[in-house]
Structures are given as structure tokens and as C-alpha cells.
Amino acid sequence: MPPATIANGGSNSSKNLSVVIVVNQRTTVQNRPAAYSTAGEGMPVVLLHGWALAQNAYRRVIEETLAGGGVPTVVTFHPHPRRVMGYGVELLTTLERRLELLAEAGIAETLVVEFSLELQRIEPEDFARRYLEGIGARAVVAGEGFRFGHRREGDLDLLRRLGFHARGVPLLAGVSSSEIRRLLHDGEVVAAAPLLGRPAEVDGIVVEGDARGGTLGFPTANLAVDPELLVPRRGIYAGFAGGHRAAISIGTNPHYGGDELRVEAFLLEFEGDLYGRRLIVELWRRLRNERAFASEQDLIDQIARDVEDTARAQRPA
């Protein structure tokens, strides 16, 4: 990741992004650069977090950050630390979606620090000087038990000794990335929603497919999904995409002998061209397993029933 400044959404020009600065270990953040100060005035109140912010457990931490006065700011990391250290991990959100969720939660500014083996070895005192003092922060909020720096030796007590007003916020019991991943792998999207604080999502770019859905009377948007992103259990789901309810297929199209995992969404009451557009697909309820049918007409009849179920589905709280 090259050092870069992304203001008001960067190259994607997304209205939903907070002001973002992306830095790596060859970049020093000093005195809150002008591009980093456009979202508000005053001293930043910083939320430190890893990759769990999309979870409802961190809502309390966000609320505490917003209540702290000054500019609500997040310091986060990319890519996922476990990937840098050679471990596999399925992401719950893309970086772009994470920034959008932060902005929706009321965060004004975000510092994205490139995680690397070099950063892993940085002493916690150096991290605080470079990335917290460097943006003018004096107040820091984090979930209780948050650790940072070399050998995870940094904690909120260390920040207090360094002169920061550091506040630990209790997290919600029973909420973890591991539990969310387990539920999504099982297709339990209704149970996962309160842990996430939102419906489960699949995020991707609409690309050309086989156009088979159109010949059946149900044209679908085929998503190219980031291979690092967690895709829930195969099956047919009721959900929402692009402002419309959507019947969603996650699977290989076994009726046609497919073997490539695909995410396809039929948007109810929609006409238009979605090719090349980014689409965030919410998964509200898993309707059934995917399967092959005795005839194409049987398949069409089942899709019609799926669409009816989708029209009645409720967005999970």
C-alpha cells in the first residue's frame, strides 16, 4: 500500500466515506495535515481498534468516542494482521465498506495504518508518538483488553502513563469475530445480524455472467467478490440490494452442473443495467438449499416461490 491521502472518499468519490489518511511505515503523520482536518475542528478523540469494528460489540466504544468532544477519529489497520503474519482469515468487510460503516456510525476522520511485519515490531511508545501524537490526539478510547505494539505490550495503562486520557469501554459479552464467522458459515444470517449490528452482507462488482437468469424470466446481477471476503453458506437467500428487495443465490448452479461459486441477485421490480457497478447485497434470511431440479419448469416455479418469499421477508434487527 503506497502512502496516500484520501479526502472525502478518494478515487471512488464516495459521499459516504469519512476523511481518510492512509500511511505506511515510511510515512510520518505530523500535526494533522490539512487534508486530514477538513471533517471538523478541535482535537481528535481517537478510537483504537483492529478488525472487529463492524461488530455490534464496538457500538459502545463508538458511542463513547462520539461523546468525547472534539473530532471523532479512528486509527485502524490494513491489511488484516493475521494475513501479514501468514495466517488465513476470511474478512467480514472490505476496507472500503469498513470506512463507510465508520462514517455511518458518526466517525469523522480515519487513519488507516498499513500493517506490516515492521509495524508488528514497533514499540508501543513509538506507535503512540507516531500515530496518536502525530495527529494531535490526547484522548483515546478502546475496548477493554485492547493491546498494541511489539509483543502486544502496549495497553491503556501505558497510554495513560504517556499522558493520554485513555478510556476502556466494556464490550458486549458473547460477541466475537469467530462467532460471527461460525454463524455465517452455517447460513445463520438472522442470528448474525444483531452481533454485526446490521444484516450480513456480500459486497462486489457486477460482472457479466451466463445471462441464463434472463432466459428464465429472472435476470440476475452476478457479483465479482473479493476473494478475501467471507461468503456465507451456499443457498438461496431473501435480501436487499441496490434499493430493492432481492432473491440471492450463493452457490454453483447445480441444476446446470456448475462448479464455480457465484453470488447472483435478482432485484425485484428493477429494470436497468448494473454492469460495472458496486453492489452491497444484504442477506436477510436463508430460504433453502441450492439443488438440481427435474425440469427447467420446476426450477422456474421454485424461483417464483423464492421471489414471493423475498417479498414477504423482514430485515433482521
- The tally of strands reads 13
Instruction: Give the mean pLDDT.
Output: 83
| CATH-assigned homologous superfamily of the largest domain | HUPs
Based on CA atoms alone, the radius of gyration comes out at: 22 Å
Give the overall shape, derived from the CA principal axes. Answer: elongated
What is the level-2 CATH architecture name of the largest domain?
3-Layer(aba) Sandwich
Strand order of the largest sheet: 1-2-5-4-3-6-7
Structural class: alpha/beta
The residue ranges in which pLDDT falls below 50 over 5 or more consecutive positions are 1-19, 23-41
CATH topology of the largest domain: Rossmann fold
The domain tally reads 2
Helix percentage: 25-40%
N→C terminal distance: 36 Å
Strand share of the residues? 25-35%
Give the number of helices.
10
Q: What sequence of helices (H) and strands (E) makes up the elements?
A: EEEHEHHEHHEHEHHEHEEEEEH
CATH class of the largest domain: Alpha Beta
Largest sheet: 7 strands, mixed
Care to describe what's here?
The protein starts with a strand and ends in a 5-residue tail after the last helix. By secondary structure, the protein is an alpha/beta fold. The protein is built from ten helices and 13 strands. It has a seven-stranded mixed beta sheet. A six-stranded antiparallel beta barrel has the order 8-9-12-11-10-13. The chain has two domains: 4-169, Rossmann fold (3-Layer(aba) Sandwich), CATH 3.40.50.620; 198-312, Riboflavin kinase-like (Elongation Factor Tu (Ef-tu), domain 3, Beta Barrel), CATH 2.40.30.30. Helix 7 packs antiparallel against helix 8. Helix content is 25%, strand content 26%.
